[in-house]
Amino acid sequence: MDRLPPLRLLTTFEAVSRHGSMQRAAARLNVTQPAVSQALKALEEHVGAPLIDRATRPAQLTEAGELLARAVRDGLGQIAAALEDIRVLSGQGDGQVTVSCTLGMATYWLMPRLPDFYARHPEITVNVQAPATDLPHLSPGIDIAIRYGTGAWREGQTLKLFDERVCPVAAPALLDKLTSGGIGLDRAPLIHVRSPHNQHWAGWEDYFKARGIERGRLSGQTFNNYVQAAQAVLDGRGVMLGWRSIASGAVRDGALGMWPEAEVDLGTSYYVTGTVPLSQTAQTFLDWIKDAGSED
Asked: Which stretches make up the HTH lysR-type domain (predicted)?
């Protein structure tokens, strides 16, 4: 760490590289142009290489300058992001709420409804995080988690958002072809969503058991997240289990069709869990999302 130059020199250099001139950088930093020039010379002495080609007009970064500029921008950006995370963790992010949910839930249910929240609360920013594990949970920096299951979570305060139902869905053309040709779900091409992290989600095995449908082989295309699988279904590649919360928009728009008389309730729901105590901002979001869930 002793080899690093003072932060003041790096921020001055970053301003020069970003604004393209010492004069504009000086105005931005509220210092004199000679002060900027002196800081650049000090940084070049520390680095041991020229960073600015002063023979050109306007002055341009040298190859070494370009290399350092990229590193400084990335480094300062990471520092700024870390400071923002610290403010959120310490409760200073009064105008923000961070929500964790699955990628499918974020893409097909939450994000289409957020414009309504912003129209009601333009002063609040909603940060949405979809963990790679597909298992949203309350962790440092997360205010609210939206989760699918039976509600057996112990941390925070958990409320039911809405009951979930499932129905096989397919592209309308494929659905018409299968049903008009007398091909039932026992022979239809299937699309699966499977990964080591989403075993808590019901699959085709659970669906067929609930419906009492006998099927010898459950082979078919497999994807590790709902968004990829949904695209394959839209492309007419097969039939997928369509969760009401996620597939209803595409069904309503006519992009997907529901298998006739095939919807079942597997006894699962979506729940929303909030930290205790909730910030006023998070409480505002929680009140809104409960109303949004009651409309489904």
From this structure: 5-62
